[in-house]
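queue> holo job accepted (adenosine-5'-triphosphate)
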Amino acid sequence: MGKKLVSLENIIFRYEGQSRNALDDVSFDIYQGEWLAIVGHNGSGKSTLAKLLNGLQFAHSGTIMINDQIMTEETVWDVRQKIGMVFQNPDNQFVGTTVQDDVAFGLENAGVSQQVMVERVHGALNKVKMNAFLNQEPHHLSGGQKQRVAIAGVIALQPDIIILDEATSMLDPRGREEVLETVRELKQENEITVISITHDLEEAAKADRMIVMNQGRLYREGPPQDIFELEEELIALGLDIPFSVKLTKELQKNGVRVVNGHLTEEELVKDLCELHSMM
Ligand SMILES: Nc1ncnc2c1ncn2[C@@H]1O[C@H](COP(=O)(O)OP(=O)(O)OP(=O)(O)O)[C@@H](O)[C@H]1O
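queue> job finished
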């Protein structure tokens, strides 16, 4: 496990005029190089967590520490440099007229020299496999490609952490796969730390660790295999377990000896093929 990069301690936050806390004594850590998925039903506090991590709101009590710096109104601009956000709607975050302008936008604002900018734009687009689209206009791109450009815009700024706030929820299955594959590769190659906030437990299954939020409280945390063992509890919280986990349970009930822990359909299919070849 890498070093502790983010630490939340006893965070309490309530929106003005509301009778209950949106975040109620939430504590957890995030380690360098890990992919943490934060899941929960509507209103469980996921987006509020993202707002606090990005300094758009401040906790009423408790501490958020990001790479050894405590988040306060005074440090927020420094801390924000360490975090890149990718949001839900691919169309709302395209600010350039072409792919390369879009990726360069944040670097221009950061006052980076022309030479460094060109290197970083090309490097970032290479990493998300969008370098063949440098001069394309956004309306020629699919949703998945637009989100990959948004990710390139973020990694060009070399943050320590990327937060994906429901970044795949408006994409078709292919776009979703493209974006998740990009995240997986980035994480593997660059030791970047990923926080994905999602309704989608199939997506969360790809993370190293999951946090389940419920009514502003941290309900459970652990590796996806352990979290999906909570099957009935997750369903009671309004969450749906991945298809491969459900199918594994049904197959086992019917006497098929598949092993537990298949978080993707591919893994389950591989196991079934191996069982079949032994028959
Ligand atoms: N701007 C706001 N003003 C008042 N209350 C808010 C505001 N935003 C969120 N809330 C409340 O705070 C709580 C947590 O909401 P939050 O949006 O963080 O949940 P979420 O898990 O991200 O839900 P969703 O998946 O629907 O976005 C909910 O009770 C919600 O009604």
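queue> The chain is about 40% helix and 20% strand.
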